Every structure is written in C-alpha cells, then in structure tokens.
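Internal ticket #5521
Category: modeling
Description: The requester needs a full-assembly model to guide mutagenesis choices. All entity lines are attached below as received. Residue total reported by intake: 228.
Assigned to: D.W.
Attached entities:
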Amino acid sequence: DTAVSQTPKYLVTQMGNDKSIKCEQNLGHDTMYWYKQDSKKFLKIMFSYNNKELIINETVPNRFSPKSPDKAHLNLHINSLELGDSAVYFCASSGDRISGNTIYFGEGSWLTVV
Amino acid sequence: KNQVEQSPQSLIILEGKNCTLQCNYTVSPFSNLRWYKQDTGRGPVSLTIMTFSENTKSNGRYTATLDADTKQSSLHITASQLSDSASYICVVRGTMDSNYQLIWGAGTKLIIKP
C-alpha cells in the first residue's frame, strides 16, 4: 500500500496552461508538504499544511495555490505555467512538524513546461 | 546564512568497497540532522536522524556520525551493493520555533559499479 501517492507522475504541458497535481496520504499524518526539486537537485519546501491550515509559504509565486480538502489530501494547482516551473514536485507528510518526525515522500510528479 | 554543503558531488566506487560521504552545515540553532537516500526517479527515504547529543548511529551497512562542534556529519557505507546507487542528501533542521526550517543539501550522487 502506497503511503504517500501523487498523480500524475509525468505531465507535459504548454506555457500558460493551468494544471493540478493531486496528493493523498494514508498514514494518518497531520502535516503535509509540497517540495520542488529543480535541475540542481536541491529540494525546496513550497508549502506546509497542518490539519488543513497553511503554516509555511516560502515566497512561492501566487500562481501556485495549495488546496487541502482534508488532512489526508493536499493538492497543488498551478496557474499560467511558465518554463521555469519545470521541475519535479514532491508531496510529503509527517506526523508532527514540531517534533521532527520523519518526512515520508511521494514518488514525485515530473512537470515539463514547453 | 543557513547552509548545508555536501561532498563529493558525485562518487563512483566498485561493488563491495566502502565509502564516506561528507556534510558540513552552518545551520544555527541546530536541532537535528538527517540523511536521506533518493533513488533515481523516486522520492527521498530517511536513513537516519542524528540529534545534538548523538555522535554515531548505524542503520545496517550505513553509519552516520555527527560532530556538533565542528558542524560536520558523515555517512559511511560499508560493503557497498549495486542497490546503494542513489543520491544521498543531508538535511539539517533548525531548532523549534513557530516556523522551523529544514535546510537541504544538494546531495552526493553515488554510483556503484559491478
């Protein structure tokens, strides 16, 4: 059983389009995250949600909007896609953002903007 | 500025050999340090976590060390196997506050050759 699952795994789209990436975790965790891994391989946090409330937004452009219908889901919607948005986006979850619990990652969504 | 630097950037060794990966950080105040393994095309998976008071921790053939005084950590892999081929990422967590930070290194790409 997949702990953190995200879809789609691969997405190729044109500049200016709007797209969404969905994420679900079945671990019962309270905190979910979206990370972006660019070509330099750094993982950068974009958003963190704790019990459906946004707690971190690391200066991400407002074209990116996370939506959490419940604590098991955190979807990422991207408006007006740009070439620089091409990257791998990882969804993740952890039991508690304060205690430093292990973060469990999904398999990643490869976004290519052409 | 909080930073995590890893070396080498990439490493190729023969199957069965040992290797050591380095992580230097400037994150302060320090809470803990994790090593993650990221297989190609997959999300990162936690290998070990080191807190301030821990010097050495083992997880099978992986042994992590931490010197909090010099702000250095290492990951030693013994008797390498082909499945060890992956990127190994060092992540340092700043101390607890309302917006704790995880600072990710760029990773060391390890290739094990038969």
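Resolution: model delivered.
Comment from assignee: The CA atoms of residues 36 and 89 of chain A lie 5 Å apart.
Ticket closed.
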